[in-house]
Specification:
The strands form two sheets. A seven-stranded antiparallel sheet has the order 1-7-6-5-4-3-2, covered by helices on one side. Strand 4 and strand 5 form a beta hairpin. By secondary structure, it is α+β, with helices and mostly antiparallel strands. The N and C termini lie far apart (38 Å). 22% of the residues lie in helices and 38% in strands.
């Protein structure tokens, strides 16, 4: 089992990052590179939780997202072709006195078969940089979206297209 700790300080708020993290609509891979559109399937979505399958590169996992705490998102792996046990992600958001936000992520990878065990070993050692880069890229992408004329607004939840990006002029309330 590998446990990887990631950290980034950003000008975006927890609410903005959580809105992006819980956007399960088309184009998700532009924000989260390890979530290819062809793997994405929203099974169920509520106001503060979702059951979603996502993945890339031959690795998929079914995840339970819980964002009921405005300072923490817990993503638990419920099924996967390689991950089992305690696998998942926990995002913790801390607002700093200077107005920035610290985002801390703990990624747990517990292989359930030989492929998962080997991937977990690689991610816990030399592959850690891949996860760091993906996380950094996701924060930069959300920063770019929040600094443009695009605002994030959730649509009414649906199974196929839970949330989408909309132009700022169609947003009733911003961040």
């Amino acid at each position: 089992m590998s446990t990887i700790h990631l950290h980034r300080t950003t000008a975006i708020t927890a609410k903005q990052y959580i809105a992006a993290l819980t956007n399960f609509g088309p184009g998700r891979s532009k924000l989260f590179g390890n979530s290819a559109d062809e793997y994405l399937k929203v099974h169920r979505r509520g106001l503060s939780e979702a059951d979603v399958t996502e993945g890339s590169g031959g690795v998929w996992e079914r995840l339970h997202y819980d964002w009921s705490d405005p300072h923490r998102v817990v993503v638990t792996t419920t099924d996967s072709n390689v991950w089992g046990g305690s696998s998942g992600h926990t995002y913790t958001f801390t607002r700093r006195p200077d107005g920035n936000t610290d985002i801390d992520v703990v990624v747990v990878r517990d292989g359930k078969n030989l492929k998962g065990w080997l991937l977990g070993l690689v991610l816990g050692t030399v592959g850690r940089g891949v996860l760091e880069k993906a996380f950094t890229n996701s924060v930069k992408a959300v920063e770019a979206l929040t600094s443009t004329s695009q605002k994030f607004r959730p649509h009414a939840p649906s199974v196929d297209r839970a949330r989408e990006w909309q132009p700022a002029d169609r947003v009733n309330s911003g961040f």
